[in-house]
Amino acid sequence: MASTHVTKRAKYKTTIKDPGTPGTLRMTFEKILFVPHNPKSAGKLDVEFRYIKGKKHTKEGSNKPPWLNLTNNQNGSFIFEFENYSDLQECRDFVGKVLAKGGEVSEKPTVAYPDEQLSAAEMELRIKLLQEDSELQKLHKQFVLSGVLTETEFWATRKKLLDREASKKTKQRLGFKSAMISDIKPSTDGRTNKVTFNLTPEVILQIFAEKPAVHRAFLSYVPNKMSERTFWTKYFRAEYLHSTKNSIAAAAEAAEDEELAVFLKQDDILASEARKKIRRVDPTLDMEADEGDDYTHLPDHGILREGSKEMTESQNELYKRSLSQDINRHAAVVLEGRAVDVELEDTKAVAEALAVKTEIESSNKGESDGDTSRERLDRLSRMTEIEDLQGPNTLPLAPLCIKDPRDYFDSQQANALRSSGDALGEIEQIKCGLSTQEVYGSLRESISSIKAMGLKEPIVKPEVAHQVFDALTNSISNTKYHIGKNPQESVLDRLPRKTKEELLHHWTSILELLKHFWASYPITTTYLYVKVNRLKDAMSNIYPQLEEIKGSVPSELRHQVSLLVRPMHQALDAAIQHYEASMQKRSAQSGERPNGYV
Amino acid sequence: MKFQIEDVTVYFLYDYIYPEQYSYMIELKRALDAKGHCLLEMPTGTGKTIALLSLITSYSLSKPETSIKLIYCTRTVHEMEKTLAELKLLHNYQIKHLGPQARLLAIGLSSRKNLCVNPTVLAAENRDSVDAGCRKLTASWVRAMAAENPNVPTCQFFENYERAASAAVLPPGVYTLQDLRMFGKEKGWCPYFLARHMVQFANVVVYSYQYLLDPKVAGIISKEMQKESVVVFDEAHNIDNVCIEALSVSVRRQTLEGATRNLNRISQEIDRFKATDASRLRAEYNRLVEGLALRGNLPITDNWLSNPALPDDILKEAVPGNIRRAEHFLHVLRRLVQYLRGRLDTENVEKESPVSFVASINSHAGIDQKTLKFCYDRLHSLMLTLEITDTDEFLHIQTICDFATLVGTYGRGFSIIIEPFDERMPHIPDPILQLSCHDASLAIKPVFDRFQSVVITSGTLSPIDLYPRLLNFHPVVSRSFTMSLTRDCICPMVLTRGSDQLPVSTKFDMRSDPGVVRNYGKLLLEMVSVVPDGTVCFFVSYSYMDGIINTWNDSGILKEIMQHKLVFIETQDVVETTLALDNYRKACDCGRGAVFFSVARGKVAEGIDFDRHYGRLVIMFGVPFQYTLGKILLARLEYLRDTFQIKEGDFLTFDALRQAAQCVGRVIRSKADYGMMIFADKRYSRHDKRSKLPSWILSHLRDVNLNLSTDMALHIAKEFLRKMAQPYEKIGGSGRKTLLSEEDLEKMGDGGMDEMLY
């Protein structure tokens, strides 16, 4: 049947146990459409084929009914029960054809909002954000689920959050653990002398990074010469020999088994790397260069001191590795950071990825040789300058990044309290009454300067920002903290927990509503009009709730609660006033609407 | 800024100057005026080097008729580079303000290993192989051969340099080693020989101590310095040890075996020459009859290390007849090696004076004192005659000849000590014969005699009256400066008890006590959790450090420390230590934070700065006494007592405390910097120990911080760090200024100066 679509009667089941909604299933090359017979029932489905990843179906002859199970890339599934197996077969073949043709697998179907096509990743991100931030979740529940705001509106004000989260996800990479690999302790079963090591790809990567010789051995031995299991057994055998600190025994074992010797010997790759690295080391600590001028330590010149006298048996020294070396190497690797970014599943893959990475690095280093000598010189001159003898130079300030404003204000509390005395005097000096011309002039000036030079980075001068924050902190901590007796304890802390949480929650939800409210002005479309009405209703609902809180607290705290509630009232009042005023205006001049201007 | 000190206009690089830098310059100028030596102690982190350089360059600028040369000696190559970098900044400043008349030539001088640009030579691993590699390409006979046979490899850089002849000069300027290499590469000239050549024209020469103190090196490099030069020894607190080591030699079994191999090789060479070119050996014999003809007219590339004895003590006469013939000399050396081998086969520790040792050689091996004395020069002559270029193979026989020459030259101030094994490891036979010098004044005497002004300066020269006695000289100025601080930016503490209130110490009977080790570990663990960025720990010895790290590793303390900071350790391998340090700095730079474990008296303690965020805390675990049962130390103590009336205990404490002070002093770089110092040993709380610390540390060591336990120290550390993180006024409070501007200096004039400073 070469038709472009199939239409069959079927039952749509969301789960296997679901009795199913009877309806018509219609499949085209693009999408799967299921329309229930009963238009009121909820099982309507409209899924594009590109979201479908795979199909399963029950076999004829088994005692199961004819089911077709289509899985999407979110591991969700759509189950259809057909009336007979021939229908199932037809549909199955069609799906198979389409899947084979499409081939490409991508995003999940949008379930909820027809006006917005969300990618699965975006959806996931939103869910993750909500999960991480309980406050956000509460707000979401309160407004979106109750219908005050739509999903789009809610997230529209948080675009930045979405962006930042998205970009952060790609940037942050996991480093190595700070624990040494020698800390991998075996587990014993307690009865026999057998020990078991648990190796994760993570640990293996670390071993490879810290011991290039082991890495090289792995690449060349496994799996041609020995299995991975024997490889690691040998490795830990060697580690055990090291830990016994018996270099003679180690030498004896190494003589018998040449593969074991690889693990026991000093790492020659490291040694050659060290020689390369020493050339680019910071010249202010290049002690190796000193040896060139050291004529008293010609062999056997000078006085042999404690420490320079070692008891070395030259032959076995080859198999001696000190703990200090291990520690230094470990720290160096941790510092370098993880070199590879592969999914840690297969050790072979890990080993190969690491090999590629080191190759790239070494070739890069070859090119940058010229730069390093320049850099070394710069570094040297930086180390020699005495900074406080120099005249004052303005240091570039890092722009401030505040994640949660509350953290900032809490931390500023102490400062603000201390400086509140003298800072208050300063604030008054700031000129408040500017004339319209002045404001207009300064605005024009700044616009023209932005036109000429573009935006500066940072946009706001750090000093200005600091001043503003100082002033803000001051006034905020005045109301918030001056009431408390102990400066460490804010008013909020003295309230009962429940009240405190409610207050904070109301505060954030009011802020959210107001944000949307003010953003809707000027009202230019009916959509905004509806939205404002919705918001207004939601806001007026808050009044009684606030009253309720006031009523619920013990009388000695009531004054303070009302102090806290007052700004919320004021903000709401202002909004509602504005709403009413604009409503009146609208009704007054309903005839001519001056371009949405309120 | 520029200002007047009496008749000299001083050009100073920075806009401000510390008051102590100013008074340091005044004292220095007085010493220069008096044409005498001086001894100046000024705390680390107060800009000694720049003060010195500013004053001396300005001094010579103000007196253009006398050509004053500055010979600046540093202990390490990186200090050399730093000094030159500082001088470069200063020089640029002076040029800017004075114009071309301020021009000078300043160069750093180091070995071939640090200056060579020939990649084939540079591929060698150590200094001696590089030297030998260079000789193989540039020795006069090799070049003579290459002139005939183009297949003989030579060094392109050296050939270019030779071809340029007198045109090969460095234009005025300041050249760090790196600059020299770059200049050499650019011009295609050998930087090493260029620098060696330019030393005589340079206004400022910066090189290692040993180029002046060790007669082996000084003999070739520092011969032609004029008397008017000013010699500066920076970081000179260990100068007595450098002097002593320069004149000490030790012989072990390996040395004797190597020497025997060398002698066999030489005898083969002699046979070969006899067969092919006997005239050469005859020519040498004739030259030796006429006297020591090999000095003076030697091509620069043929120079080898010079005679190990001091120039005044070298006999200026003909080589004795019995060693003029190469075979005879070889026999003498074989007998000497045989004799020494016999002496090494001893069961007991033996101590002998050089005089009786020489007498014993004479009676047993039939070598008289005069012959011994000439061993070194005779060997040198023979090696040149035999045209041996792989000199790095012949170090053993060279050691033997050094030994012979020294033992034949000096009758007093030395002793010979033969130990059959190391006292701490009596089960391992490792015989060693050491000729050890006890008198630091011997090696430095020629320097004091030759140059009119020698400046000895360091952050720790306390007690300052001891150094003139140790080095046997009379300074015209001897001063110790304190540090004027804007705020208390150093915080020394003495920790006597661990968290369990039990005393901690590295005293011999306590050091292996598990309680002490645990308390030390806990101290470090607590500290790394509160101190940001870098932390440095010093231990009394390598073996102690190894032991304690292993114990910490086993007990899991190390793992906990690693949760807070990365751990790096100084090892005896210089390359590894350097890389560890480099990584340590990186870890501090990137904010990860790190701990560095190091050893007092080690290379790191001597020369690496842990300033700013590279070291916010130093912990000195224990008192770094020398190993007091060491035979050499005992012999030296005896000598000091008999000759200079210095008590053993005093000297040991002085030596231990100067090392400790040196370790902890590395945290401060400038007054904007800050750092804590913990002396973790109960013995530091005793007055006789503590009082040996330099005054700038003592003045900040408050009485309440003298007897702390871990928890109290932790509390103090937290408070200190919090205080230091606050912004502060750089210029200093109302009472005393800690930063002077040009105006301040003008205002002070001559009279008002003292009251402002003190």
UniProtKB/TrEMBL annotation, chain A:
Pfam families per UniProt: BSD (PF03909)
Domain called BSD: residue spans: 112-166, 191-243
Domain of life: Eukaryota
Record's protein name: General transcription and DNA repair factor IIH subunit TFB1-1
Lineage, uppermost ranks: Eukaryota, Viridiplantae, Streptophyta, Embryophyta, Tracheophyta
TrEMBL record, chain B:
Residue span, Helicase ATP-binding domain: 7-285
One of the protein's GO biological processes: positive regulation of mitotic recombination
Swiss-Prot/TrEMBL catalytic activity: ATP + H2O = ADP + phosphate + H(+)
Gene Ontology molecular function, alphabetical: 4 iron, 4 sulfur cluster binding; 5'-3' DNA helicase activity; ATP binding; damaged DNA binding; DNA helicase activity; hydrolase activity, acting on acid anhydrides, in phosphorus-containing anhydrides; metal ion binding
PANTHER family: DNA REPAIR DEAD HELICASE RAD3/XP-D SUBFAMILY MEMBER, GENERAL TRANSCRIPTION AND DNA REPAIR FACTOR IIH HELICASE SUBUNIT XPD
Named cofactor requirement(s): [4Fe-4S] cluster
Top-level EC class: isomerase
Similarity annotation: Belongs to the helicase family. RAD3/XPD subfamily.
Cellular compartments annotated: Nucleus
Keywords: 4Fe-4S, ATP-binding, DNA damage, DNA repair, DNA-binding, Helicase, Hydrolase, Iron, Iron-sulfur, Isomerase, Metal-binding, Nucleotide-binding, Nucleus, Transcription, Transcription regulation
Protein's recorded name: DNA 5'-3' helicase
EC number assigned by the record: 5.6.2.3
Principal location class: nucleus
Transmembrane segments annotated in the record for this chain: none
Native source species: Gossypium hirsutum (Upland cotton)
Pfam family, one: Helicase_C_2
Classification via SMART domains: DEXDc2, HELICc2
A GO cellular component entry from the record: nucleus
